Amino acid sequence: MTDLPMPTIRRDVLTPDMLAASSCSTGLVAAPWTIDQQGPAYGPGASESDQIPVNAPVQGSIPEEYRKASDEELHERIARAKATLGDRVVVLGHFYQRDEIVQHADFLGDSFQLARAALTKQDAEYIVFCGVHFMAETADILSKPEQAVVLPNLAAGCSMADMADVAGVEDCWEQLGSVLGDLSTPDETGKMPVIPITYMNSSAALKAFVGRHGGVVCTSSNAEVVLEKAFQKAHRVLFFPDQHLGRNTGRAMGIPLEKMPMWKPNQPLGGYGNTADSLRDSKVILWHGFCSVHERFTVEQVEAARAAFPNVRVIAHPECPMEVIDAADEAGSTDYIQRAVKSAEPGTVFAIGTEITMVNRLAQQHPEHTIFCLDPVVCPCSTMYRIHPAYLAWVLEELVAGRIVNQISVPEDQARDAKLALDRMLEAAPRK
Ligand code: SF4
Question: How far is the centre of ligand 1, averaged over its atoms, from the C-alpha of 49 (Å)?
């Protein structure tokens, strides 16, 4: 057997001492509302040290009765409020949400699946999105105007999404125009000089930018299909904010690394030694963004898993660095990982490179396999972690009382343009 640490412990039963020994941040033992009272911060967890935008939403205090309630009481209050609201509410839960939240979700999925799920519940008055800010924005854009989308904790952002803002992308677009010519019309070959592609993990403002410029949103499930379609219309793509998903997808399609220059925002020609010639010669221009959760995975962790279990099947999420993808056996989205585990022969050993909460849940749901996270340290996505049952109970009981709190509303003009890019995404179904 193995001496690899197996992070199957539940965070809700961790003591401070255990956390200090096994997790990336002792702050994980504290309730999320201790951070909410401190101003903008991502909170303890994988993206704790990332730079947060100054205008990031702040949650503020939730009533004391929720902060003091026991786990059992919160569970009962959520279930009761949901039963009272009935079909008037739909609760969506991302794979990275804690189990105490997931058990109340009507739909569990990745961002692509939840975007589709929101579309199937057009009669629900309220969509409560247990995920992060950009996902709730997307649900608001795709839902009917009379539906209200609620994010239980306003401070549940995404550090990767925050690494690209409209000002930086517009500056990049202008600079690319100075090198590639008029970006709004096809050249003599009938192709556009460049098409913008944004990962789902981006603000509505960026999705709107992409929609206005003939681009498309992609997810980790359909990135390759989206890129293939884009290359039928354009010579190259500008891909933001996740460099790793862009690079890993480009490489899987046979694009050499030298044709995928990086772009650092607000630098002349994006820095990194870029020149007008290197940009003209590019196929995928990669934004300088990343997910702090998936950047934690390393080749050494893959090697340790193989040393402990020679027959291990290593699956890494495409937000992981390229070297990790190369060392793994497979790369795939959260949906791909779920399906791989479900369809495997009993007794399969999996080392998985994605968010710890989802890996732990898979391990519990599939005792017929051995499943562990590549990263031996318990380190959840710090912002997903901020959706605590106290917030879900609060927003649901407010809805029962006829009050909508924490509503996410995308301005109409932004929503109209962003929807163009999202509709193009929904047409690009992932390959199974
Ligand atoms: S796991 Fe990474 S990309 Fe996903 S919400 Fe968290 S920080 Fe953002």
Answer: 14
Single out the residue of 194, 149, 148 nearest to residue 169, CA to CA.
Answer: 194
Query: What CA–CA distance (Å, rounded) separates 390 from 130?
Result: 12
Query: In 3-state terms, what secondary structure has residue 203?
Result: coil
**How many angstroms does the Cα of residue 296 sit away from the middle of ligand 1?**
12
- Which residue has the least CA distance to atom 2 on ligand 1? 291
Length of the chain: 432
Q: Which residues contact 117 (CB under 8 A, 6 or more apart)?
A: 90, 92, 106, 107, 109
Closest-CA residue to 385 (of 54, 97, 175): 97
Q: Residue ranges of the alpha helices (H) in 91-197?
A: 99-102, 111-120, 133-142, 166-180
Tokens 């509503």 map to which residue?
407
Q: The whole model's pTM is what?
A: 0.93
Distance 40 CA to ligand 1 centre (A): 17
Tens of pLDDT along 305-343? Answer: 999 999 999 999 999 999 999 999 999 999 999 999 999
C-alpha 355 to ligand 1 mean position (Å): 9
**Of all atoms in ligand 1, which is nearest to the CA of residue 381?**
6
List, chain by chain if needed, residues with CB within 6 Å of any ligand 1 atom. 47, 96, 132, 158-160, 201, 291-293, 355, 381, 383-384
